[in-house]
Amino acid sequence: MKLWPWRGRRAAREQELNREIEWHLNEIREEREAEGLSRRQADHAARREFGNVAIVQEDSRAVWGWTMVDQFGQDLRYAFRTMKGNRLFTALAVLSLALGIGANTAIYSFMDAILLRALPVSDPESLVVLRWHAKPIQRGSFVMHAMSGSTFGDPKSGTTSGIFPFPAFELIAKDTPVFSSVFAYHPARELNVNVNGQADLARGEYVSGDYFRGLAVAPAAGRPISPDDDRAGAPPVAMVSFTYSQRRFGGAASAAGQSILINNIPFVVAGVTPPGFFGVDPAAAPDVYLPMHSDLVVETANQFGARGQNYLDQNYYWIEVMGRLRPGVSILQALARLAPPFHHWVASTAHTDGERANLPELKMEPGAAGLDSLRRQYSKPLYVLMTLVGLILAIACANVANLLLARAAARRREIALRLSVGAGRSRVVRQLLTESVLLASVGGILGIFVAMWGIRFLTLLLGNGKTNFTLHADLNWHVLGVAIALSLLTGVLFGLAPAIQSTRVNVISAMKETRTGEHGLRHSFWQFSLSQVLVVGQIALSLLMLVAAGLFVRTLSNLQSAELGFNRENVLLFELNARQAGHKGPEIAAFYADLLRKFRAIPDVRDASLSNYALVEAGWSVGIEIAGKETDIGNRMLAVGPGFFRTMQIPMIAGREIDEHDQLGALSVAVVSELFARTNFGDQSPLGQHITIKGRVNGHPASREMQVVGVARNAWYGPLKQAVPPVLYIAYNQGFPEPGQMTYELRVKGDPLRMVSAVREIVHESDALVPLANIKTQAAEIDQTINQEIVFAELCTDFAILALVIACVGLYGTVSYNVARRTGEIGVRMALGAPRGNVVGMILRQVIVMTIIGLAIGVPVALGASKLVESLLFGMKANDPWALGGAITILLSSAVLAGYAPARRASRIDPMIALRHE
Amino acid sequence: MPKPDSNRIALMQGTLDMLVLRSLLLGPAHGHAIVKLIQQLSDEALQVDHGSLYPALNRLLKQRWIAANWEQMPDKNRQARYYRLTSAGRKQLTAEESKWERLAQAIAKVMKRRPEEV
C-alpha cells in the first residue's frame, strides 16, 4: 500500500531496525556461547540481556515520530472496516446526521438572507429608517386624514408606520446637523413601460432627488437621478435596474440615454443601477426608479393617483423616509435632535382636540438591513422552521450516540482482549474516537450537499412561480461549520464516554462474559440504560415534530377547503390596464366591453367577466353612505362587469345581478353581499335601497348614487386568512370611479391555460400597447396567496417524517441490540417452554414502555409549544385534538412496527443454537 | 534484563546521548561495541540498557549528529551497522561537554560543602 510517500522510508527504517536488533541478539548469543553456554542457554541470556524487543522497537519508532501518523492510519482503516461491517446502521446514522446538518444550514441560510443581511450599499450601518408611533387610533380623530401605504400594530400597543406627509419630509431634510442626507421614496406599483414599441409592465419606485446620493450607489451606466430631476416640470428621466436593463435593453450600456414611454409619457433613461442593488426593501426590487415629482405626469392616468396638492397636504401620509447619519452621530442623538421639531410640526397639523390628544411620535430604526417587510412576513415561520430542524439535528445526534453506545457495549470483550495483550489504554480510546469522528465527518460532508440541494428546493418552494421573487440565499458556511462541529462534538462526547468506560473493563470478567448476560446489565430490560433514555428523548422530540406537522397540514387543508363561496376551478385570470396605455374617459369602458365580447367568443370559454380586482386579492373601498349616513369602515367594494356572479358561480339570493344593460347613462346599480345586507340594512330588504359612494377624482369631490338590485351569497374577498368583510359590488362602467386596471375572469372548459394564446392575440389586435399581466388560474392564485402555508405544511411534514424515521431507526437499533445481547437468555426461556408469542410480547412491552414514557414527556411540551405558533394556524385552536391524537397514533404504531422486526427475530431463536454459545 | 547491581549506576536522564557521542569520538562503532565501550570507559560503573541504546541512537540519527552504515565486521563473516560522528555531532559533543562540566562542578560544589558552611 503506497498510499503515503513517507511509508516507503518508514518501512526501510523499520526493516533496518529489525535487522540490527537481530544482529545484536546474535552478537550477545555468540559471546555467551564463547563463554561456554549451550545454544539454548545463550539464546535465553541474549534475550534477557537485550530486554523487551517490542518495547525497543516501539521506542525507537517513537523517536522518528511515526507512531501518531501510523496509528491514525491504522485507526482510520479499522474504523472504515467496522463501518462496513455495520453497513445499515452506519448508513442510517450518517444519513440522519447529513439531513440534520443540511436542513439546519439551508434554513439558516434563508434566515440570514431574509433577517440578517445588510443592504448592498456602502456603510449601511449609518442608514436610519424613520417611523412614527401613536396610541391606538380612534377613527376620525387622528392627524392622518388619508394615506397611501401601510400601518401596522394592534389595538393594545398602538399603531406604527413609516409613511409621512411630504412637508414632514421637508422639515426633516432641512435639519442637516445629524443627517448627511435624507431621502424619500414611494412605490409606484406597476407601470406600463414601452421600449421601442414593445409595452410591458414594470415595478416602479418614486425616489426623491437625494435617494441615490444618500444610499451612496454608483450607477453601472449613465448618471443617477439628481435633486435637479426631482421638481415639478423637470425633463422626465428614469433609472432602471441592472437586470431590467439586460431584459429590456440588452445591457446597461445600451439602456442609458434611451427614450422610452412610461404610462405613455416620454422619458429618458438617465442611468442604470449597479447589479445586486434592489432598492431599500428586500421584498420589492423595483425595475424602474422615477423622480418623486414625476408622479405628477405619470399618474395622470390614475384617477386616485398623485396630485400637486399631495406635496402640500399636511394630513396626507404617503412617503417613506430614510436618512444617513453623519459620522459620529448616534441614532439616539439624531432622534433627540429631530423629535421636538417633528412634534411641534405635527401638533400644528392637528385640527381638533381629539387629534391633539394622540399625536404621532417620531421613531428611528437602524436601516442597515433595509425595510422589514420581508422580515415581518417570514421571521416567525423561519424561527419555527429553525426550531424544527434543530430538533432533527438533536434526534440525529441522539441516534449517533446510540449507535456508538451499542457498538461500545458490543465490543466490551474485544476491548478487554486488546487491553490484555498490552494495548495502551489511550490507544484504545483513540481508536474508538477515530470511529465516532469519522462518522460525524462523513455526515458533515454529505450535509453540505444536502444543504445546497435544500437551498435550491426552498427557493423554488418559496418562489412558487412568482416572477418578482427577489429572495436569494447563499450557503452559509458559518452555520455549516457550527452544525458539523455539533455533530463532531456528539461523536466525541458519545464516542468518548463509552470508550473510557470500556477501557475500565475488568479484563478477566469481561473476557468471561458470554452472551447470556453481562454482569450489571442483566436486568437492564427494566432498568433504563443510557441508550434507552436517548430513544425516549427521540420519541418525545418526534412527537413535537409530528404535532407541528399535523397542525400545519390541518391549517393548509382548512385553508384549501375554506368555503370560498365561488367555484375556483377552471377559471383563467389576467390583468389589463388600458388607462396606462392612453385610453381615457368613456372610451375606456367601451374598450373593456369590446374585449369582453371577444373573449366570450373564444371556443370553450363558457362565461367571462371582469372586476377591478381578483376576488382573493381585493381590498378596496371609498366612502359609502346609506340614507345620508357614512357606513362602517369595515365595508369593502368591488367594481364588477356584466355576468360577474354567473362567471364566478356566486349564487344570487335575491334580485338580479349586474348585466349588459347596466351602462353609463342607465340607472346606476349595485349588488350587495348577504353580510353587507345584514350589517347595513338589518331585517329590511336591501332591494331598491339607495347607496351613495363618495371620493375624490383628480382632487375634486365625486360621488355616485346607486340602487341595490340584488343580493349575492357571501363569497371570499381578500386574503384567505382574514374574515370575509361585507361587500358592495358596483357596476364598473357607470361613472365614478372610472375603470382603471381590470382583472378579467374567464370560465372555461378544461385547462384554463389553454386559452392564453387566444387571449394574447385578441388583446394585441385591439391595442398592442396594452400588456397582459399576471396570467394565472384562479386555483393557482389562491395557492399563491396561501403559499407560505403550503410551504410550511410541506416542510413540516417532510421534517416530521424524517424525525419519525430517524427515531424508529434508533428504536430498532436499541431493541435489536438488546435482543442480540440476550440471545442466550431467550434461548433458555424457550428451552424451558416459553411460547414464541411470549417472547414477542416481552420485547414489544419494552418498546411500548419506552414509547409511552417518551409520549408522556412529549405531550405536555407539544401542548405548550403549539401555543407559540397559534398565530400561524387557521381554522383551529393550538391544542388541536386531531393533530395531537394523530401524532400519538402514528408514533405508537411506528414504534411497535420498528420493534416488531427484532422481536420476531428473537422469537425465531433456536434454543439449541442459542444455548450452544454457552 | 540484567539484574540490578549495587556497583553500577543508573544513567541520568539525557546523559546517554552524550556518552554515545563521546564513545564514537574514538572511531566508528556498532551498537554492541558502543555498549561495551561505555561500560569499559566507566570502569564497568555505568550500565547501558539495550532498551534505551537504540532509541538514543535513533534520536542522534534524526538530529544528524551521527551517521550509520552497514559494513563488514573485521573478524566475522557478517555485516554490522556502524555508527560514526558527523561534524555536527562533534560540535554538539563539545557543547555538551562544557555544559556537563559546568553542571558537574556546580553539583560538586554543593555536595562537597561541609555541613557547618551551609
Q: What report would you give on this structure?
A:
The complex is a heterodimer of chains A (918) and B (118). Chain A has 918 residues and is an alpha+beta fold. In chain A, the strands form 4 sheets. In chain A, strands 18, 19, 20, 21, 22, 23, 24 and 25 form an 8-stranded mixed sheet that branches. Chain B has 4 helices and 3 strands, in the order αβααββα. A 3-stranded antiparallel sheet of chain B has the order 1-3-2. The longest helix of chain B has 26 residues. Chain B is elongated and about 65 Å long. In chain B, 24% of the residues are buried. The chains are: A alpha+beta (918), B alpha+beta (118).
Features:
A: 918 residues, alpha+beta, 28 helices, B: 118 residues, three-stranded antiparallel sheet, 51% helix, disordered N terminus
Q: Largest sheet of chain A at a glance?
A: 8 strands, mixed
State the strand order across the main sheet of chain B: 1-3-2
Rounded to the nearest angstrom, the radius of gyration of chain A is: 38 Å
Rg calculated over all Cα atoms of chain B: 17 Å
Which geometry of chain B do the CA atoms define?
elongated
Q: Count of helices of chain A?
A: 28
Oligomer: heterodimer
Please outline the major beta sheet of chain B: 3 strands, antiparallel
Q: pLDDT under 50 segments of chain B (min length 5)?
A: 1-6
Give the structural class of chain B.
alpha+beta
Could you report the average pLDDT of chain B, rounded to the nearest whole number?
Answer: 82
Span of the ends, CA to CA of chain B: 42 Å
Strand content of chain B: 5-15%
User: Percent of residues of chain A in beta strands?
Assistant: 15-25%
Q: Count of DSSP E strands of chain B?
A: 3
Uncertain segments of chain A of ≥5 residues (pLDDT<50)?
A: 514-527
